[in-house]
Amino acid sequence: MGTIFNLQQIINGLQVGSIYALIALGYTMVYGIVRLINFAHGDFFMLGAYAAYGAFFLFNASLAGKGGATAFLALAASMAAGAAVALLANRLAYRPLRYKPKLSSLITAIGVSMFLEYFLSALPAIGPSYRSFPEILPKTQIAVGSATISNYVVIDIAVAAVLMIGLTALVKWSPLGKAMRAVSQDKDAARLMGIDVERVIAWTFAIGGAFAGAAGLLSGMTYPRIFPYMGIQPGLKAFIAAVLGGIGNIPGAVLGAYIMGLAETFASAYNSLLGEGIAFAILIAVLLVRPRGILGEKTADKI
Amino acid sequence: MKPYAFVSAIALAALLSSCGGGSAGKEIKIGGIGPVTGEAATYGVSTKQGMELAFEEWNAKGGVLGKQVKLVFADDKGDPAEGATVYTKLIQQDKVVAIVGTVMSKVTLAGAPIAQAAKIPMITPTSTNEKVTQTGDFIYRACYIDSFEGNVGAKFAFDDLKAKSAGIIFDVGNDYSKGLAENFKNTFEGFGGKIAANEGHPSGATDFKAQLTKIVQAKPDVLYVPDYYNDVALIAKQARELGYKGPMVGGDGWDSPELVKIGGAAVENGFFTNHYSAADSRPVVQDFVKKFTAKNGAAPDALATLAYDAVYIMLDAIKRAGKTDGAAIRDALAATDLGVVSGQVKFDANRNPVKSAVIIEIKGGAQVYKTTVNP
User: Fold this and answer.
1) Any chain B CB within 8 A of the CB of A151?
2) What is the ipTM, given to two decimal places?
3) What is the pTM of this model?
């Protein structure tokens, strides 16, 4: 069993889990507030990767040699792009359907997702083919015991951790966070208390989109190949992670994402063919045994 | 309506007969097929360019059997149904005496039975699937088959790289990748080498670290990666990240400028088997590269080369047959022993060519000709 449960594989799993976690947060926050499974969320992730790609070529020349500054700008660009497209999708597609049957929003989300994928594929500047993502920071390896860790692993895990701690603080202690929690509990009551519900929803989309964008950058750096359909698989996995942790629950999404990352890694190491399937096996198991997820609250209807 | 129908029937008959000159006319018609549109459009364009150059050269030398040869080219769009249609069209409507085509195995598999049934000799330039030539005795190919490539990779790893143990990572959803991996394993073990780890990955994956960790921890002397360039680049990067420093070997799926663009330094110390190398110093290769580049403005890839070779093999057979009868051409093809750009070609009993493969090394971000491996 030493080839499956060892330090290297745990690190691999944490790296995958960090990217899932950033995406899963957006799913879970939006669901928590407006009870919408935003299937276009994986595409916000994809747009973040493309924004970082664009920012790199825009700023790399003027910041030659300053990898850190370029990386920071790329992160800012990816988060801004993710937030912007999430806001637009909310304003143009979801808000008009807010008080219509939930199914309409769900189908619209699928439409938004397809629109983003196919529209970008049709744009000559982006196109349907793979693009190689530049190496923004030089890659270095550190040997830790029996494992080899690259600085990219550290960056992935650290960026995810910092953003998640920031989000927790925001939700717990800021007025916006308080308003978000209020809206998620009861929209009408929140409105009666003078909370601008639409504004809170917009913020939620923006934060979720920014996190997905950041995940896009990390994914682009780690797996340097980007294309308009790159968001589909991670989006699906992150959605399962959110369901596993209890959709609507922020710590749950993070927990679910890390469980997914580790489970996929261990399963792949045990048998290559299991890796891809384990996510869906987990989904089925959760839906059968504990439909509200590990940390989820009991609700009558889910989707 | 009746007179009208009668007239159009006459007109149709006249049209058909004027199309069907065949070998009775002043020229010999040969069908060419490739996907010049659709998902594999660059494959088709290269193929067509290769064929056209070969026809020009033969006609400049006076053609075959005292007649000029004419290429009747058709687009199969990379679609098996469309492929079956154009095979039928070329044979029944254009009355070609032989067919060179097509590129993708799945399309060739749809067209080959039609050529076989009509007893029209056919050679595919690049369909590597084993089943293609098993269709019948009129079906040949100019490229080697998947299993051969795996064998050559193993031979190179064992003999030239002196590897005693190997790790393999392959795409479980791709017959090409699976076939190469399987044959590499068998051959390498046949030489007395050890397969330290043999791991599959799902199609479309981007994270290969779980599998690679297992492989790297088994400490193989060589890593065999029979994948397409997009996956190879990611696998190479992640393998290097996990501390693997040894050589990597792969197949013709590596042949793309994108490999180095995505893979960067990680694909250095990488080697792959290919049909031909533009850097091969043999005069026949250099002559072809020069002419092709002058005509098309870019160096030929393996697809253009094999299409060019396939035309040469077919026209050489017609010349030796002395007539354009299908069975005679078939028998002449079986007796082929011809030096073409991709090597010296003879056919085995399954109508697959027995010829050498080249090994290409990725060095300093470029493809460098390393060596030629004979079967």
Assistant:
1) no
2) 0.81
3) 0.77
